[in-house]
Amino acid sequence: MSQSDTSTLKTADGISLKLSLQRSLRRKKRNALLLVAPLFLFILITFIIPIAYMLVRSVDNQIFAEILPTTAPLLAKWDPLSGNTPDEEVFKAFITDGKVAAQAKTINRLGKRLNYEKSGISSLFRKTGRNLRKLEPEKLTTSYKEALIKIDKKWGQVDTWEILHRESGKYTKSYFLSAVDMKYDANGMQWKDDDSRIYLNLFKRTLWLSFLITFLTVLLGYPIAYLLATLKTSTSNLLIILVLLPFWTSLLVRTSSWIALLQKEGVINDFLFAIGLITDEGRLAMIHNQTGTVIAMTHILLPFMILPLFSVMKTINPSYVRAARSMGATSFTAFRRVYFPNTIAGIGAGGILVFILSIGYYITPALVGGTQGTLISNFIAYHISGSLNWGLAAALGTILLLLVVALYILYDKIVGIDNMKLG
Question: The domain containing residue 50 runs over which residues?
Answer without folding.
Answer: 3-57
